[in-house]
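Re-running the complex after MR caught last week's input typo. The corrected sequence lines follow. Everything else is unchanged.
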Amino acid sequence: MNLKIVSLCAALALLSACETAPKDAGNASGTGTQSTIRPGSQEDLVVNVGDRVFYGFDRYDLTPEARATLDRQAAWLKQYPNVTVTVEGHADERGTREYNLALGERRANSAKNYLVAQGTNPSRVKVISYGKERPAVLGSNEAAWAQNRRGVTVVD
Amino acid sequence: MRKTFLLRLAGWAGALLLAVGVAAPARAELRIDITKGVIEPLPIAITSFFGAGGREAQVGNDMSRVISADLERSGLFKPVNPAAFLQTPQQLQTGEPRYADWRAIGAQALVAGGVQSTPDGRMKVDFRLWDVAAGQYMAGLSYTATADSWRRIAHIIADAIYKRLTGEDGYFDTRIVYISESGPANARQKRLAIMDQDGENHQFLTDGQALVLTPRFSPTAQEITYMSYFGKKPRVYVFNIDTGRQEVLGDFPGMTFAPRFSPDGKKVVMSMAQNGNTDIYTLDLRTRRQTQLTDSPGIDTGPSYSPDGNRIVFESDRGGSQQLYLMNADGSGVKRLSFGEGRYGTPVWSPRGDLIAFTRQRGSNFAIGVIRPDGTGERILSEGFHVEGPTWAPNGRVLMFFKDLPSGNARNARLYSIDVTGFNERRVSTPLDASDPAWSPLIP
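Corrected-run output:
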């Protein structure tokens, strides 16, 4: 439960950063790691790697930006072999509930498959779909929807 | 909370053994033709049911209020203002209607009744329906029931009046299960909730700890199948209303969702998603056997049986975008049903078999529509920024669905009902925000 709260805070911090930044979130690699961040933690993943990738409307294929983020995630997972993760697949609100559940599952799996192709052991990556139930950004506009069509990697 | 709920249900079960018909045959002079599109509502005078004692009179008042509200909500009836009535409930209980007086205030039908306590502590309710223009008695029934079931008896009487005057079964003695929503959009708390069709007797069935979605009734209205994220494992469950017991359905390796009962109640059809692929399965509730019905690389979901159980309508993106398809109940004979512009989902077969309701997404709008199972007669009933998830009243005349407004920072989900003709759209009031409604069959 504590871990979950930490990761939620991290995600919120990231989102506010995103409002002025380009769509893709994982552009923080290369900046110095703050001493307060525990290596191999969700915060580490969010701040230094990028925890999420974004998808087009009704799509689940990976953009070049998404692949770059997942490349960093795969390298990070190699660095912390004891870490296991769950990829959460999400959809925007512009779809029906059940279809979006299936679409979220597709998205989470496309991210997982990419991580596995980059050498991550499949047993370290679970998936879960939330459909349109857990938007990251509030609002009924394309900017919000683009942020909500996402796959988020969460340290278990 | 659960306890009072069960007690109430037990009262219901006891109440209904005793419906006794005393109807006399009559020629059908008065009849609402509901096959037409726009209907001029029938003016109907519904008097307070007469009670000799204070308590009986109070129940009689309440019953006529419930009956009147039911009939008015259907859009087919227009209750006449009781302030205009020239004959008292007592006069109607002991003598004949003075038809000229009722004609004078514009009533075409007249309803009266009585409430009496019985020596064993129950109550006897009777009602009569007259055709005012023809000056003729049309129907009547009497019921003996536990005193606390007066509300349900009122719905049953409203159903009897509806049936006598329209020729079709009513839908007032029914319940709605839905998802009650609260909290911010990104951390929405969702609870299973149930209420009578008119919003009364509202109860929460789950506590909101786990995210729950898409509840649907069993054919006996005793069980609800739904999806829950209990333990962070999204799976299909069955909730037994009598016992309060919740049970996960089947041992599936992936996420299960989009459940619906088969019309005989023996199976639940649902989707399972695994490795990025979603197919449709059934689970036999007795043998626990799983059967896979679809095997396409696309998303196959939203299955709904035809009322005879022989066919299933579902949605699939196998052709490139979300569309409606039909198949036989064993998964054979798949055929595309929808060919309109846009994306089609959430198909639900009408209980009378003649139509399939759906959600359509086109451009920046959503719509609720119906189409015949042969692919003809597609019509849109309601349109908006976001409307979704139709469900049918048991007589196939009325639908319920939910609506969301552009959210800004808050969600705004509400239930609405609408006639199958597309008229009489009405808000269905709920204590909190509401989505995913499912209409019960007539309560057995």
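None of the earlier attempt is carried over here. Chain B has five helices and 31 strands. Chain B has a mean pLDDT of 91.
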